[in-house]
Amino acid sequence: MKRRLIEIAHGRSGDKGDTANVGIIARRPEDYPFLVQFLTEERVKSYFGNMVTGPVMRYELPNIHALNFLLHGALGGGGTLSLKLDAQGKTLAAALLKMEFETHEG
Asked: Quick check: helix, strand or coil at residue 9?
């Protein structure tokens, strides 16, 4: 059975220059270990594909059951330079929350 991350997490995103900042927060503390295991830097980079031209860095925030990702080179130069519709990356957390994962739970 496939589920989406939005069922177990919520998120926020924003920008700093050409780097998007995406925070993913577990809705329940018991789901945080799964997020740590599943949401790797490599998986997030692969999910966004060529939208992210630089590295993806992950920071763990276990005290608030959250992960923070920096997506370097994701905003086309940044808010004042970019011609992207979402030059400030405000929708990237919502996009990441659509990622599917397999579960054996019914």
From this structure: strand
Pairing of strands 100-102, 56-61: unpaired
Helix (H) / strand (E) element for 56: namely strand 56-61
What six digits make up the tokens of 2?
């496939």
> Which of 77, 66, 59, 84 has the alpha carbon at shortest distance from 29?
66
Q: Which two tokens stand for residue 32?
A: 């945080």
4-48, pLDDT tens digit by residue? 999 999 999 988 888 999 999 999 999 999 999 999 999 999 999
Q: Report pTM.
A: 0.89
Angle at 69 (CA atoms; ends 63, 49), nearest 5 degrees: 150
